[in-house]
Each structure stands twice: as C-alpha cells, then as structure tokens.
Amino acid sequence: AMTPPNINSNNGNAISIHRSSSSTYAGQSSLPRLPIPKLEDTLDRFLAAVRALLTSSSHNDGDDTNINRDDDDDDDDATNKEMEECKKEIEKFLTIDGPMLQKLLVEYDEEGREDETAQQGSYVEEFWTDAYLTPDSSVVMNLNPFFVLEDGPDTNKSNSQTLRAASLCFSAIKFASSLKNESIVPDAFRGKPLCMDQFRALFGACRVPASSNKDNVSVNPESSHVVILENNQMYFFQALHPDGTVAVTEEDISEM
What are phi and psi of 84, to 5 degrees? Predict the structure, then answer.
C-alpha cells in the first residue's frame, strides 16, 4: 500500500510536500526483468489451457441426465480427435516456427536490458500496450475501465455532491503533487519493490488517436490544471504551482 505524503500548510493557500527517504521511482533500475519461460513450458501450459475450448459435453455445467450415452461417446471421440490434432500442431510449432520466434523474443528482451533509453520495461510491455492502443473498436465500450465510488466517510460531505466532488478533486490534486515531487514511497510486495512506471501517466495524460497506426499516449509533465465540466460548459483552474506544490484548498474548490 502507498504511504501518504507528509503535508504541511503554508499560509493557508499552498501545501508543500516533503520528499520521503525513498523516491517514488528510485527502484526502477534495480527491478528484476520478467523472465521468459522456455518454449516447451509455454506449449505445455497452452495445451492445458486449450482443453476448456474443446467441444466435449463433459465440459458443460448444465444438467446432462437426459443426454444419450451414444451422444456422449460421439462427443468424446470428437474431443479426442481435436486433442490429437492440437498436439500435432504443437509438435509442428515446436520444431519449425517456435524456436525461431523464441530466439527473436529473447533477443528483443536483451535489447531492452542493454538500452537504458528503451521504453519497454519487459518483453511483454509493448505487446500489452498495443492490445489497448491498436484496436479500432470503440474505446468506451471495449477498453475503458470504470469504477463506482462508495459513500464518503464524512457524512457532512457525502450528502452534498459539490462538497464530495471538491473532496475527491482535492485528494487527487494532493496525490498528483506527491507524484510530481516523487515523494510517494514505492509500492512493495513482501518487502520487494514493485514497478511504479505507469504512475507517470496517471495525470496530465491523453490518448492521441492515429489514423494509420496505433494510437499514442502523450504525457505533459508540466500539467498543472483541472478541468470541470458542468452543464456542457468547461471551466479550468490552476491546481499546482510550477514547483509542484498544491495551489488551492478544498474550500477553494467547493466555492468555485
């Protein structure tokens, strides 16, 4: 879990964030690389996973008490045939295309290890990102996440949409300030640091569509404002000072 930053008031108008002893991105260079499994291990896992896609009635969860036993035998024969065909394709891949593709993947990962300016932190990162940025299907329906907020802990604010929105906005601004000043302690699991790289695109980021290629994610590190949409009108205010400190109070936001 993230440790909240130390926040001190400054003349009631700005909030300064003290840098923690461990910078947010300090452990990035020392993180271990994601290991590439052996080709044989990958194919073994593939064979185990593909069983769920076979057309055997034994995989159905419904009531099969009225299913004819002869039908079961036919399904089992079809399943066995599909499995044998799958095994043949796996063996074919293991001896022809597989080793070459595995070699290219290992070389791709080694290039990322040696190039300190490389964007990918692991061999899977670029492919994972492309899965979101390449499809032409509707982003809103197919890719965008959403979440539902619980009731706020402060009952005085939870009954007012304006006060609740101001509270959420102010908390987000404080978090953005902490990231800009790299004062958030890196996430860890069982004492080992986790990758914090995606936090760089948490604020001031925009997906830029491209007509002939995959879309791009553009991040403005100098982003310092918040946009409010109300009754089809857009308003904005400066939320951060140039040095990354918070430029407003929660009361300022609620009174806008």
Answer: -65, -40
Taking Cα atoms as reference points, which of 197, 179, 199, 167 lies closest to residue 244? 179
Average pLDDT, the chain: 80
Q: How far are the Cα atoms of 36, 146, 216 from residue 134, in angstroms, in the given order?
A: 24, 20, 9
Residue 126 confidence (pLDDT): 85
Q: Which residues contact 62 (CB under 8 A, 6 or more apart)?
A: none
Phi and psi angles of residue 185, each rounded to the nearest 5 degrees, phi first: -65, 135
CA distances from 131 to 101, 142, 212 (A): 19, 11, 16
CA angle 133/136/141 to nearest 5° reads: 85
Rounded to an integer, the average pLDDT of 88-111 is 94
Instruction: Give per-residue pLDDT as tens, 122-180.
Output: 888 888 888 888 888 777 777 777 778 887 788 878 788 889 999 999 999 999 999 99
Residue where the block lists tokens 């990962």: 109
